[in-house]
Amino acid sequence: MAGEPMLALAGIAGGGVAAQWVAWRLRIPVILVLLVVGLVAGPLTGVLDPDELFGDLLFPAVSLAVGIILFDGSLHLGVPQLRAAGREAVALVTVGASIAFAATTALAAVVLDRPVGDAALLAAVLIVTGPTVIGPLLRQVRPRGRVGPILQAEGILIDPIGAILALLVFEVVHVEQQGGALTTVLGTLGRVGASGLAIGLLGAAVVWAGLRWFLVPDHLQQAVVLGTVVVTFALADHVQEESGLLAVTVMGLGLANQRRVSVERVAEFNETLQVLLVSGLFLLIAARLDLTELRADLGRNLVLLVGLVLVVRPLSVAAATWGSTLTRSERTFLAWVAPRGIVAAAVSSVFALRLDEAGLGGGGALASSVVVVIIGTILLAGLTARPLAVQ
After folding, report:
1. Average pLDDT for residues 133-157, to the nearest whole number?
2. Mean per-residue pLDDT for 310-326?
3. 338 with 313: CB under 8 angstroms?
4. What average pLDDT is seen over the chain?
5. CA distances to 39, 93, 227, 360 from 120, in Å
C-alpha cells in the first residue's frame, strides 16, 4: 500500500473510522486502538509510510489538521463553558504551565543528561495536553462535576501556548549558538502574539460579517467557515511561524463568544470532521515511529515519564487549584489525566527538523522522548481514567 497513494489514503480514512467503531464496540479508549493500528500498519509491517505518501506535505498537512481541530475545540468554549471551567482552567495554563515547564526542564536535564536548552525545548513541547486526546477520552469516561470542562478548556488553551513557548526556547538556543541578542527573542514573541491575535480576529470578523448580513447562503456556510479557518491558519503561519495555532484558537473563541449569529450548524459539521482528522492524525503519527530509535534511550525516557506523571503534573495541579472549591477526588483526576497528543507530536517533529537544520543536534532524541511520553500518558489515562472518574 505504501506505493499506492490512493489505497494508502483510503486505508487511513477507513482504518481510522474502523478503529473508532471497534473502540465504541469494545468500550475501550479509541486512542489505544488507533495507536495499535498505526504501529501495525507502519513500523511493524511497513504497509503505511507517511513520509513516502505525503513527502514534504506531511508536516504542513499535520499542522493544518491540528489547527482545524483546535478551531473546533475553541468554537465550543463559549461563555457557559468557560464559566464551567472557571479560574482553575486559567490557572492551569498559567501558573500550572509555568511550574510544569520549570520542573520538566530540571527533570529532563537530570534524567536525560541533556543541556539546559535542549531540556527546556522538550519541556515546552510536553506542557501541552490537547483536545485530540482529551475530547475522545472524556466522551468515553464522562466524569461528573467540573473536571471535564476544566480539562477540555486546558487542552484547547494550552496548545498554542506550548507551540509559542517551544518557538521562543528554540530562538533562545539558536541566539546563544549564533551569539545573538535577547531582543531577537522578544521580537519573535511580539510578532507571534500580534499576528496570531490580529489575523485570528480578522478571520472571526470575516465569518461573522458573512453570517450576520446573510452574505453566505445556508448550504455554503460550513464550507466558507472551514475555508476561512484554513486561510487564517496559513496566513498567520506565513506572517510568523508558529502563530497559526494561536490565530485559529482566537478565531474560534471570538465566534463562540458573540451573540449576533449562530454557529451551531458549523460546530456540528466540525465535530464530524474532527473525528476523521483525529483518527487519521494518530494513525500517521503511530505509523512514523522508529522502533530502533525508541529502544535506544527507552530506560531514561521511561524514568522521565514516571517523573512527569507522579511529580510534575500533581505539583502543577496542586499549585493551580490551591484554594479552589474542587474536591480531593476532582483534583486527583486532574492530576492523573494529562495525556499528550497530536499537537505535542507535531510540534516536536517540527522542532526536531529545525534543530538538525540549524546544526544544533538533538532532534532525534527530542522526538523519541516525546513519543514515549505520548504513548505512556495515553496508555495510563486510557486504562485508568474510568475508575478514577468522579462519580
Report:
1. 82
2. 94
3. yes
4. 85
5. 29, 17, 35, 14
